[in-house]
Amino acid sequence: MNLVEWLQRLMTNFGAGWVMWLLIALSVISVAIMLERGWFYWSLRDDIGHLARALRERLREDDLDGAQKLLEASPSAEAAVVVAGLLEADRGARAADEAMQGAQALQRMKLERRLAYLGTLGNNAPFIGLFGTVIGVVQAFEALGQKTTGIAAKDSAFSAPTEVMTAIAEALVATAIGLAVAIPAVAMYNYYQRISRSILANTDALSHVLLSHLVGENNGKRDESPTED
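^ thats the sequence. predicted structure below, dont judge the formating
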């Protein structure tokens, strides 16, 4: 028995049913991730425009403690990043900027957690379904070959096409399931990526509110410093 015959027998023995069950299991995991990510992003919602205005007012009054309390009361990822900068504000704008960049990197990891699974599933689920279809087609032709060898030629001319079409129609179900799993995964992956990019953009904007205050404060102190005659 050569390798091709061995693989053919292996596929016909196991069939394509396990491929469909695998796709269903992957789909269940995918839906769970979609729901978890949706709830996570929902929990971070806040009015960032209002938060930025309130933060600017506190900073103009040099009320760093009030600004910190304001941000700590916000559930948003943007506020968590700026809080890291406020904790280092007494060491200057450079230290605050470095702290916020580190905090932003951590928030990015939280925002993009498990999204790679959705992207990978969306790209590969159709191929998994196609693999099940190929197995089903191999089974169809295997059954057709065994049937036509045992019946008369005139009977096989009518029964063979019907047998093949029925088997191929069943095999195509695997491809349909693969597409049904992939399309929602790709759609939600793109949607969540867009939310993540929006949050990170808002984080940059809110971070610059703090940085502009620290830079201006530093320049003001430098201008007020006494000069030597």
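The two ends are 100 Å apart (CA to CA).
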